[in-house]
Amino acid sequence: MYDVVLLTLGSERDAPGACGSGGACCGGVTDNESGPTTESGPTTEARPGPTTSDDERCVTDRPRVPVLACADALNARGARVQTVTARSDAEIDEVLALFDGPARPDGLTWPDPDSKTRLVVATASDGQLRAVLRRLVRRYAPAPSRRPADLPGNRTLPDLPPVAVLPLDPARGGTHRDLAAQLGLPRGPAAVAAAVLDGTPRRLDLLRNDGGSVTLDGALLGAADDAGRPLHWRARVEVDDTILTNGDEPLLACAVGNAGGYATLDEVRLLAAPDPADGQVEVAVAVPVVVRSALGRKRVRLEVRRARGRAVSVLPREGKVPYLDDGVEGELTRKRSWWVEPGAWAVWSS
Question: Alpha carbon of 94 to those of 5, 6, 34, 37, 98: distances in Å?
Fold first, then answer.
């Protein structure tokens, strides 16, 4: 029977000071303090961390009913379950080390394709899932100078261990769909337990970027003022050899899509058919174009330009460009490139 690690992150945020960003997660445990809190058994959960202010409150610093229910369902099937709450990158890495394969002659750390240990990530946001995948990439992606001969030519990292996703926010399965909802993954604890024990891995594309992170769903660049009106900005956007804009014209938005989370913006269709398993990234820019009517009146029409390819780059021409990447906020101040790693990660699907 399988060993199952049920991993919860100590913060719902993926921002400075939160899991996946190099600092301590909410809960106050830093990299050089105590290791991850772990307990085993059918109904155990990691102990909560110190109390924080309302603004810094951790949604996962107290026992979560879905986590306990999933552990119960796994134990009922005979699985050996370990629940872990990680509050730093180092603590996530301790869990991921369980998936290392045998020592290789080239000395690389490589995932074990025959591992009997399975991973369930309890997520309050797509940013939390991204934090775990980012640590997997950093663990197993070899340096360019140490690229092994058995690595596929269209990849920079091996097949990452499959993960099961346990959503902690039921609302994200409805109108504001998270990645699990887009992929049609099971959401109930018992269904997730069944998928991790009886399901099959579904391999998906991963976007890596030159900022050292990864993207599972997509990114949306642009911003609005306090009244909700989109602000104009300029950037050169290039997909493989196709230039969507050279940076001389104003933009309202740019969507970089692996999946469909940013396919629409205010009822405007940006991405036509993003597919997280087709080996390509879909990119769109929204450009306001001034046109004249037959009577000579000016009006603004929104022109959406799209392209698909293996890689995309965005070079801001002036100032900072706000963006959301898997729901995590940031600001782009210099060129950023994303590229596709076909089939690099996988989810357990029923």
Answer: 11, 13, 12, 11, 7
pTM of the model: 0.84
With 0-12 CB in 10 A as exposed, 13-18 as middle and 19+ as buried, what is 65?
exposed
DSSP structural state of residue 252: S
Half-sphere exposure of 150 (CA within 13 A, CB side): 7
H/E segment holding residue 346: strand 336-349
Element (H, E) at 285: strand 281-292
Longest Cα–Cα distance of the chain, Å, equals: 76
Cα–Cα distances (Å) from 31 to 56, 92, 94, in that order, read 19, 10, 11
Phi and psi torsions of 164, nearest 5°? -100, 140
Alpha carbon distance 206, 178 (integer Å): 16
Per-residue pLDDT, 310: 98
Cα separation of 128 and 122, whole Å?
Answer: 9
Q: How far is CA 340 from CA 35, 155, 207, 209, in A?
A: 34, 8, 5, 9
Q: Which residues contact 55 (CB under 8 A, 6 or more apart)?
A: none
* Closest alpha carbon to 214 in 92, 313, 326, 97: 326
In sequence order, the β-bridge partners of residue 243 are 238
Cα→Cα distances 341→65, 140, 278, 314, Å: 35, 13, 11, 18
Residue 205 phi/psi, 5-degree rounding, is -75, 150
Contact 270, 299 (CB under 8 A): no
Question: In this predicted model, what pLDDT tens digit does every residue of 199-235 receive, in sequence order?
Answer: 999 999 999 999 999 999 999 999 888 888 889 999 9
- Give yes or no for a contact between 11 and 25, defined as CB atoms under 8 angstroms apart: yes
Check residue 299 and give its pLDDT. 74
In angstroms, the CA 45 to CA 69 distance is 11
CA 216, CA 326: separation in Å to the nearest integer? Answer: 7
Do the Cβ atoms of 245 and 251 come closer than 8 Å?
A: yes
